[in-house]
Amino acid sequence: MRTDALLLVLAAAAIHATWNALTKRAQDQLAFLWSSVSLATLVLLPAGWALLPPEGVPGAAWPFLVATSVIHAVYFYVLGRAYGSGEFSLVYPIARGLGVALVPLAAFFFLDERPSPLGALGVLLVVAGIVGINLSSAGLTSAGLSSLMSAGTGWALVTGLSIAAYSLVDKAGVARLHPVPYIAILGVGMSLLLVPAMVRRRVALAREWQTNWRAILVASTLNLTSYLLVLFAFRLSKAGYVVAAREISIVLSVVIGRLWFGERGLGARFAAASLVLAGVICVALAR
Asked: d(Cα 167, Cα 162) in Å, to the nearest integer?
């Protein structure tokens, strides 16, 4: 993996874990997500407009922009539901890990990307580490294992599917349009699609701004910024490598779970997280 792509992805991972933790702490996760992303979109629109080609958005880019707007609307909706009904240290690894498992496989068939043996090993280590984190989060008791089938887990699985879908769409989309206008248009489409859901939650939306406006402002500087870095990385490296390397954020989520949310018994999770780190190193060295 190219060094510049790796640095972009590692920065994106740290930012991503931070805004997800802020989302988990919100009173209404969907209201928080919609507010922060919509605000970030307004800030990005002038830069996106300035970087459009003279002829405007190429026709070849529109199918990807429409598809990613719909998928991201689904993603933010189900992510909000997942954090509202499941623990951070369980939801985050499941949601991120499913994308790691699916993207390289789908990229092989749809994008003609063939990972090297070292790259494939790295992806497998990341997946193995994520599975280990999930099992250690649930425990081996019947009650613990049943938590893997909780509502939060179900929403996290749907979140993971949406991550895999938008990763593949956006890998192809940014080959047809510069990442800045691409993500600005994406943000507009996603925000508009979620307006009906927010109208139904207008009381929760108002309460979220009243009690959590500082965190919303902070998150608005982080969420689209983290994904913009990923979009630039997609232009430099294989989709499977980018998605796998990005999951260093799972290691950070274990640390955040301990320091920020006071979660206990993290020894097994750190051991599993070391597999994720080893996998990211393999991906970083792969070509």
From this structure: 8
User: pLDDT per position in the chain (287 positions), as tens?
Assistant: 788 888 998 899 889 888 888 988 899 999 999 999 999 999 999 999 999 999 999 999 999 999 999 999 999 998 888 887 777 766 777 777 776 667 777 777 777 777 788 878 877 887 787 777 667 655 544 444 455 555 567 788 888 889 889 988 999 999 999 999 999 999 999 999 999 999 999 999 999 999 999 999 999 999 888 989 999 999 988 887 787 777 777 777 767 766 776 666 566 767 777 787 787 778 777 76
H helices of 139-247, in order, are 142-147, 151-173, 179-193, 195-200, 202-220, 223-234, 239-246
Supply the pTM of this predicted model. Answer: 0.81
CA-based nearest residue to 167, from 257, 269, 51, 64: 64
